[in-house]
Each structure stands twice: as C-alpha cells, then as structure tokens.
UniProtKB/TrEMBL annotation, chain B:
Subcellular location: Cell membrane
Pfam families per the UniProt record, alphabetical: BPD_transp_2 (PF02653)
Keyword Cell membrane: yes
TM region positions: 36-58, 65-85, 97-122, 134-155, 193-211, 239-260, 266-287, 294-312, 318-337
Name assigned to this protein: Branched-chain amino acid ABC transporter permease
CDD domains attached to this UniProt entry: TM_PBP1_LivH_like
Domain of life: Bacteria
Family: Belongs to the binding-protein-dependent transport system permease family. LivHM subfamily.
Topology with respect to the bilayer: Multi-pass membrane protein
Signal peptide: none
Keywords: Amino-acid transport, Cell inner membrane, Cell membrane, Membrane, Transmembrane, Transmembrane helix, Transport
Listed InterPro entries: ABC_transp_permease, BCAA_transport_permease
Organism: Cellulomonas alba
Length: 407, 345
C-alpha cells in the first residue's frame, strides 16, 4: 500500500514537473518583452521639501548667511580642544565617520584662517555600543583640555553616558541622537542639533495626509524599538487614513515579504509606510513592485541611506524618505569631497554646524567647559542645515523635518 | 458605540487576531508564493537530509553552503561581465537562460566545493578521532559562524570590496518578474514557474540518482549499515564526500533560484533563517528521506504564508515551528518517516 502510494506520488511529480516546464518554455518569450522596461537611469536620494509638524512646507532659510568656522581670522586661543564620540569602527561606523568628517572640515577651515588659534578634535570610538561608550566616557571627561563634546552619536550610548558628562559639566552636543527621552533627564549640558523622533512621525504623517492627499495608507513596521515607536506615531498621525486591515509587521533580517505583499496588494492603498531600516526596506519595496503593487512607498530616516537605492534599484524610484537631517549645500558637498575623497553623508552637515558653533565659542574667548555650555545655551544663529537656537530642555526651538525623494 | 471603537484596536493589537478575510482573499496567491518558497526550501532540505541519512549528522553549516552559493552565482555573473546596477538587463530569452545556467553552475561549484571543503576540514578529522556526535554538532555550528564571518569581514578585503561586507550585494537582475497567467485570481510569474520547475526537476533527478545509479546504491548502503557496506567494497569516505557534494550542488542551485526571487538577499547573514527553515522542512517530511524533504519543503512554504495571512505577518516563524511540533507529536519521525536507506532500498 505504502509502496504504491509513493510510486503514485512519483508519477504525479513527473507530471507536474513536465507541465511546469511546458508552461515555462511557452511563456518565456512574452516574458522577455517586459525585461527592457525596468529602466530608470541612475537614481539617488534628492531633497524635496522641508516640513513642520503640520506637514506644511517651510521654506529653507538658505545657507548663504550661515555661520562660518573661519571667523575673522584674529582669534587667539591655546590649550583647548574638542572631542567627538561615536561609532568609528564596527557595523555602524558609516554614521560616526560622516559626523567626524563634518566636524574635521569645520576645524580645518577654522585652523587655516586662524593661525593663533589651533583647535584639534580628539576622537573616541564607541562602536555605537552603550557599553563601550561607558568605558570611554571617563577618559573624555578626565582630559581637561576638552571643553566641548560633539556626540555621542547614537541614542543608546547617549542615554548610557549622559550622566557622566552632566556631572563633569561637559557640553554634549549631538548631531544624530534622536530619541525624544534624552532631553527629559534634566541634563543642562545636553543639546540636540536636529529634530527628535517625536517630531518626525507626526510631521511625516501630516505631510502624507495634507500634502500628498493619501486617504488610505498601510503602515508596515519592523520589530526594532525604532520601527515600533515610529509606526505608532505615524498611525496616530494618519488618523483615519491608516488602514488597520493592511497594517503588517515584519522582522529585522527578513528578506521575503510574500504574505505582506499580498495583503498590501489586496488593500489597494494609496501608500505604504515602512517603519524600519533600509536592509529590509530594499527587498520589501522590490517585492512590492514585482508583486504589482503601485502604491507610493514612504519611509523615514532608517531607510534614508544610499544603500536603499543601491539595493532596491528601479523599485526605489519615487519613494519618499524623511529625515531630521538636512541636505548638504553644494559648496559644502564639494569641500567635503575634496577633503575626504568621499561624498558627505547623513549628519555631516549637522556635525559641521555644531562644530562651528563650538569653534565660535572658543574664538569668543571661552576657555572652560561651563563657559561653552553657557555660550551654546544662548546661541542664536543660522547654520548650513538650519537655524540653531535651543529651548531650556536642549531641543531646537524650531524643529523641522526634511522630505527626500528617490529620483 | 465609543466603547466598541475603543475595544477593536485593543483586540487587534493585543491577542492574536484571526484574519480569515486576508487568508480567503489571497488564498491562491499565497499558495503560489508558498510553493515557490517551498521548492527552494526543498532543495536546501535535501542537503540536510542526505548528510543526516549517511552520517546521522545535522550539518548546521549547510545554511552557509547555501549562502556561499548565492555569492558564487553572483560572482559568476560578474565574471560574465554583468555589473550590478539598479536596472534589469534584457538579454533576450535564450541568452538569459544560458547566462542563468552558467550562473547556476557557478553557484553549484562554489556551494559543492564549500560543502566538500567543510567536510574535509571540519568533520573528517573528528571522524578520524572517533569524536562523539555532540562534537560534530558544535563543530557544525562553529563552522557556520566561521563561514559567515569570512564573508562579512575577509571576503571584502580579498575582492576589493566587490563582494561581501556588512551590506547586501547590489543586485544583478537578469529576469524581471512578469505575469504569465492567472490561476483562480492568483497571478503566476515567469520567475515562479522557473523556480518550481527547476526545483522539481533537480529533486527528481537527485532521487533518480540515489535510486538508480551505482553511486546512489553506495549512498544507500552506507546509510543502512556503514560497516557492512565497507566490507562489501564501498569506500565510506568517498561516499561521504559524494553526499556532501550533492547536498552542496543542490544548495547552489537553490541559491540561484532564491536570488531570482529575492535579488537583494545576497548577504553574509542571508542563509541563516532559510537554512533553519529548510532543516525544519527536512524534519517535517522525515529527515533522511528525499521525498520527505520535498513534501516538507512545499508544505512548510505554503503553511507559513497561510499562517501569516491568518494570524498576522509577524507570526511566520512561529507558524513554521508550531507546525513542526504538531507533526512531530503525532509522527515523531516526520510525515514520511526516516528512510534514506531502509524503506526504499
């Protein structure tokens, strides 16, 4: 009995295989006609518009009157230096290096113009790991020549080390840590140079509803803290436009999204919002497009990375990607490229601006940590990326989000 | 009214909700996708099953053999002059098939070589010393990490950052999915047809090889009774090498088929989950049993997607493993039982 049934199964298998081959060969001609249509030229992430929390456009204030690290060239100082803490090696090193290079560019322009005031930046590698950051934090605060810190770069390490910097009265100026809770610790030395995550979610949600006029959006989230938090804010911000029937959850490390694609496809929504990182967003958008889903693709700073475009290729075309980070002005991008022989990246401009602010403080004669904190607290001026003026908590008084599009 | 409105999202978010609608609406589409993935699982599962049948060893590094296959076919395409780009190539049907064939061959060679090399470097010395089976298992897991980290850290240095590293490879797309026909509302694409057909042909060919050739007879003999097989003049070492080679070659083929479907899945960590799923498929169907690998693979692929539609997309792995536990509760040796040597001898 068993023998016959498995033989039957064998026969059935051959038949199925035969059918599949026949189907395949007779259809492959029509398949080839489509092959050429997936063009798209060279795509990249282009800045589109700056928005506020109601999703309305805010004209970029322009970078022409931005603070210049060169100053008047008459500054005198000695024995003071700055520090940068962040991931310089390890899997997240790209962001740390973007930040370090941005700051180095500001320092170079300053030092070239001011022969009597040479400031250097000391690098502290945390690998982006909170535990490693707590190990290097003491060596930062014990170096008395350091009067200002650019960083830490990530939220986790900032949370872990914030107390140490606060107790030692060292200015901590971050160009990239966006967790909203960081400014709720009562640290009077901590300032954030860009909008936080609690601004991004609502702003992008309102932009989708009010400007892009989407009335049905599928929110897809990954399982990271970042993705879960962002999806919650987006869903809330979208209100009735968020369709819970096609909301889906995926996992970090997933490469196959068949079920999610089918569910999104049958929902026929205006847009899909993906709350997560580019490593999953790239295969996800590819599979959405190859599965025939035409809905717009919107995502946030976790996806705003050249790797997203590189891996998703033509499927990434027209995707909207938000970021609290500002675009690099042409001159900055050119200077950066000339200096480091790589393109400037996310947070490079922020790092340049924040380093410039600290340098201006030093040029004004400040020699100690308390003085620099005071200087930043009262700072009010234009940078390349945005206007910098902080409120009492250390958040920007006017926190704006940039929308980028893959073109 | 307001109480109802408040209660609905809580229910949907909190406990597992049953979304029968999603399953019913997308049933055939999910079936098609599930069979496609199942076919790939089945090919990889065959590698687990063969090695287990012959050595009683669960080769956990097989997922990395598969991952090497992905890089192998990718490197082959690069050697053929294809450059990674955002756009798909259009070479015409015939040439595309030829290129895919060469790429598959490249993947097979790399995967087969990795599997055989792994056997020689990691397992044979242990066997020579008569190590306990636990040592093999730990070695397999260790080898898996070594191979992953090789691609993660060392391969980029050897290839001038062309291959490997922390990010996935930029895809080389030769075939763009296009719908060939619609089956009960589910569109079937050329890629899905290629994957299922190729996987079935390869599984069938492997089965024929094991059942009908001299080498296959050797494999079955060693699986049944290694000592007697040796006495009858079968070289056990050679058979073991052959077994790893076949498993590796099939994983290489699976790697190409997988990258047709997921072009941006070529990454050092890309084999891990798929390997575990394929292993699950092998156990589900009955480890040591070739037909079991096929059945287990297809079943797992389909059930995972049904489960995702029914319970929510985040439940994929849970569905797979609950299914495995359920089957093993009632059939401890898997659906078709363990039988590389025994039943079909």
């Amino acid at each position: 009995m068993r023998r016959t049934s498995s033989r039957m199964a064998g026969v059935a298998l051959v038949v199925v295989a035969g059918l599949a081959v026949a189907g395949c060969s007779s259809k492959s001609n029509s398949g080839s006609t489509d092959t050429g249509t997936a063009g798209g030229g060279s795509l990249s992430i282009q800045p589109l518009v700056q928005i506020d929390q109601s999703g309305a456009e805010v004209k970029s204030s322009g970078s022409t009157d931005a603070a210049n690290p060169a100053g008047d060239g008459k500054a005198t100082c000695s024995g003071v230096s700055l520090a940068m803490a962040g991931a310089l090696t390890g899997p997240n090193a790209a962001l740390g290096i973007n930040i370090l290079n941005g700051a180095k560019l500001a320092l170079k322009q300053h030092n070239d113009a001011n022969p009597n005031c040479q400031v250097d930046i000391k690098q502290f590698d945390t690998e982006g790991d909170p535990q490693k950051a707590t190990q290097v934090a003491p060596s930062i605060v014990s170096d008395k020549s350091i009067i200002g810190l650019l960083g830490p770069a990530f939220s986790g390490e900032t949370k872990a080390t914030g107390q140490v910097f606060n107790q030692n009265g060292l200015l901590s100026l971050t160009a990239s840590a966006t967790n909203p809770d960081l400014t709720k610790n009562g640290w009077n030395n901590f300032f954030r140079g860009l909008a936080n995550d609690a601004v991004q979610g609502p702003s992008v949600a309102k932009y989708m509803v009010n400007t892009l006029k989407y009335s049905k959006v599928c929110v897809v989230q990954d399982d990271s803290d970042y993705g879960v938090g962002l999806a919650e804010q987006i869903t809330q911000g979208l209100g009735s436009a968020a369709d819970s029937s096609c909301a889906a959850k995926v996992k970090t490390g997933d490469k196959d999204f068949s079920a999610t694609v089918q569910i999104v496809k049958s929902a026929n929504a205006d847009a899909v919002f993906y709350a997560g990182y580019y490593a999953e967003a790239a295969p996800f958008v590819s599979q959405l497009r190859s599965g025939g889903v035409k809905s717009a693709f919107v995502s946030a700073d976790g996806t705003n990375d050249p790797q997203f475009v590189k891996q998703a290729g033509a499927a990434s075309k027209d995707a909207y990607l938000s970021c609290p980070c500002g675009p690099a002005p042409d001159k900055f991008a050119a200077d950066y490229k000339a200096q480091f022989n790589v393109d400037s990246g996310v947070y490079s401009v922020e790092a340049y601006d924040l380093a410039t602010i600290m340098l201006k403080g030093i040029d004004s004669g400040i020699k100690d940590r308390a003085g620099l904190i005071d200087y930043v607290k009262n700072y009010d001026g234009q940078g390349l990326a945005r206007h910098y003026k902080w409120n009492a908590d250390g958040e920007l008084a006017s926190a704006l989000i940039w929308i980028y599009q893959v073109k | 009214m307001s109480a109802l409105l408040l209660a609905t999202p809580v229910l949907a978010d909190g406990v597992i909700g049953f979304n029968v609608d999603a399953l019913a609406h997308n049933f055939w589409a999910l079936t098609v996708d599930g069979l496609t993935y199942g076919a790939i699982y089945a090919l990889v599962a065959t590698g687990y099953t063969l090695v287990y049948g012959v050595l009683r060893l669960i080769n956990f590094a097989h997922s990395e053999v598969f991952m090497f296959g992905m890089f192998g076919q990718y490197a082959t395409l690069m050697l053929l002059g294809f450059a990674p780009s955002g756009n798909a190539y259009s070479e015409g049907t015939l040439l595309t098939i030829v290129y895919l064939g060469i790429a598959m061959l490249g993947g097979m060679i790399v995967s087969g070589g990795t599997a055989v090399g792994l056997e020689r470097v990691a397992y044979r010395p242990l066997r020579k010393r008569g190590a306990p089976s636990l040592a093999f298992l730990i070695t397999a897991i260790g080898a898996s990490f070594v191979l992953q980290e090789f691609v993660h850290f060392i391969l980029p240095k050897l290839t001038n950052n062309e291959l490997g590293g922390a990010n996935a490879q930029q895809p080389i797309v030769l075939v763009v999915p296009s719908v060939q026909f619609t089956f009960l509302g589910a569109s079937v694409t050329n890629i899905e047809l290629i994957i299922v057909a190729a996987a079935l042909i390869l599984t069938f060919a492997t089965n024929q090889f094991i059942v009908a050739t001299k080498f296959g007879r050797g494999i079955r003999a060693v699986a049944q009774d290694p000592v007697t097989a040796t006495l009858m003049g079968v070289s056990r070492e050679r058979i073991i090498m052959l077994t790893f080679l076949i498993g590796g070659v099939l994983a290489g083929a699976a790697a190409l088929l997988y990258t047709l479907r997921v072009p941006n899945g070529i990454i050092y960590s890309g084999g891990f989950i798929l390997g575990i799923k394929a292993f699950t498929a092998a156990v589900l169907g009955g480890i040591g049993n070739l037909r079991g690998a096929l059945l287990g693979g297809l079943l797992l692929g389909v059930m995972e997607l049904y489960g995702q539609a029914l319970f929510g997309t985040e439940w994929r792995d849970v569905v797979a493993f609950v299914l495995l536990i359920l089957v093993l509760m009632f059939r401890p040796t898997g659906i078709l039982g363990e039988s590389l040597g025994r039943a079909r001898a």
